[in-house]
Structures are given as C-alpha cells and as structure tokens.
Task: structure prediction
Amino acid sequence: MTGGRQVRVALLVWKPLNPEAPGDTTRGMPQVLVTREDTTPWQVPGVILRPGELLLSAAGRAAYAVGLELPNHHRVLATDFRRPEHMTLVVDGGWVSGVDARIAAGELSPCRCHGVPHRSRWAASEDLDDLLTRALRAAVTTPSRKESHR
Result:
C-alpha cells in the first residue's frame, strides 16, 4: 500500500459451544481464536495485505499460519475504516471443533508461519473489541456449512 497505508486482514476463526448447532447462542456466544507474539497484545490471526495481493490470498496466509485451510465460503464479516492509514478487514475463517480446534489453538502442531514464536488460545466473546464482536455476530447469525468436524 502506498503512503504508509496498511490494510490488516484479520481471520475470525470461532469455536461454537455446540458443534451440532453452531448458530445456537442460547448458552452464550462462541469463543474466538486469538494469537500473540511474545509480549504483543492478543489478537485474531491476521496479516498485512501486500501490494497487489488478493484479499483471499492474504486470508489464506493467516489460516495457514494457524494450521487451518481457508473455508470454501468467502466473506468479509466486518470492516474498520475509521483510521484510513490502518484499515482492517475481518474475513470469515469459519468455525472449528474437535481436532481442528485443538490444531488452531496450537495444542497439536507448532506454528508454521515464521520464526517468531507465538501462542494461541480461545478467547471469550466478552473479551472482543467492537469490530470483532460485530464480525462474530455476523458469522454466527449466518453460519456457513460445517467446514470440518474432526
């Protein structure tokens, strides 16, 4: 991006409380995958969009970093353009359960993204900022077909 402008592509990966009914929020909202490097704040996995890169390619890089594949459905769940020099697009990373949820949280495989070690965990929806809360609500109210159920 020119002029110091950065577009962050954030990947929202969520774990429903009930994998048999992912859109059911009667027991509460799903958890969301967050990562951090060393002492940086916890945040959803994401990458900076490279000049000329397609949005889906960037989202695919973020998914690969946490050991997942980008879902077959492609949708932007929320955007933040309040600060034009630091825009954020939240892309649907799908929902996971079972083994896929454990892989995403780093329990079964090391990070594949780069040399800087990072940690992953599942965060409660109450811990999310406004942008991610809007994205999670959009994902849950219109859930896609189940992507995996390992």
In short: The chain is about 20% helix and 25% strand.
